[in-house]
Amino acid sequence: MAGGQGTRLGASQPKAFVDLDGMSLLEHAVTRALGAPEVSHVVIVAPVSHLREAGAIASRSSRPADVEVVPGGAERTDSVAAGLAVLRPEDGIVLVHDAARCLAPSALFSRLVREVRTGHPAVVPGLLVTDTIKQVDADGVVVATPDRARLRAIQTPQAFLREVLEHAHASGAHATDDAALVEAVGGHVRVVEGDRLAFKVTTPDDLATARRHLSG
Ligand SMILES: Nc1ccn([C@@H]2O[C@H](COP(=O)(O)OP(=O)(O)OP(=O)(O)O)[C@@H](O)[C@H]2O)c(=O)n1
Ligand SMILES: C[C@](O)(CO)[C@H](O)COP(=O)(O)O
């Protein structure tokens, strides 16, 4: 998913096309996705304004025949739907990934596919939460302190049996992640150990963190 604008990053171009050590975030993400032997087809969902740039990334990737580009939609869910619409008949497991999580390693893609193959229809990576999280009302008054041991900070790639994800999207609902759509239609979503490198570049600080990771 590279169809967002990256408003919180505040760069002069959409976030996925911002440079990170000589390569855009999107190119880092595509390179790592293609590095997983289980990944046979990549669909880049890009802003209408950047279809050409996305096409160039597809062309210079390690497997250009397996990478295509489609225009995204207004919200992330619309962009995912645009990607689902061009899946190939043989695409049985779908990984939905954010270009913003550009350093998620190939091994994480492979591990998620393996989890789906062992019989879990929807598998997402998550990290233990290290802060105490409080639920507040509209006035900022605490209404609950959930048990931290039961909380996970969810990442991408998120892996699904294709029919499970298509069924969830057919509901027409919107959510910030695809697992929530599956949950909303009564599907079982399993959380497995995430990867610190799969953090999301949202703000300029996150971009600086990504640069530090790459430099050593
Ligand atoms: N209409 C959209 C919105 C988001 N995304 C993608 O979804 C991922 C996660 O979204 P986020 O980090 O929130 O990206 P943006 O929406 O671009 O950021 P912002 O909310 O700061 O504008 C990103 O890789 C983004 O490109 C997308 O494909 N289509
Ligand atoms: C899909 C996601 O990256 C999982 O953590 C996240 O929900 C995207 O949310 P955002 O609001 O678009 O940043």
Automatic annotation (TrEMBL):
Its EC number is 2.7.7.60. The record marks 148, 200 as: Positions MEP for the nucleophilic attack. InterPro entries: IspD, IspD/TarI, IspD/TarI_cytidylyltransf_bact, ISPD_synthase_CS, Nucleotide-diphossugar_trans. It is an enzyme of class 2 (transferase). The keyword Nucleotidyltransferase applies. One of its GO terms (molecular function) is nucleotidyltransferase activity. PROSITE patterns: ISPD (PS01295). Pathway: Isoprenoid biosynthesis; isopentenyl diphosphate biosynthesis via DXP pathway; isopentenyl diphosphate from 1-deoxy-D-xylulose 5-phosphate: step 2/6. CDD domains: CDP-ME_synthetase (cd02516). It catalyses: 2-C-methyl-D-erythritol 4-phosphate + CTP + H(+) = 4-CDP-2-C-methyl-D-erythritol + diphosphate. Pfam families: IspD. It comes from the Bacteria. The record marks 8, 15 as: Transition state stabilizer. Belongs to the IspD/TarI cytidylyltransferase family. IspD subfamily. This is 2-C-methyl-D-erythritol 4-phosphate cytidylyltransferase. It comes from Pedococcus aerophilus. The gene is ispD.
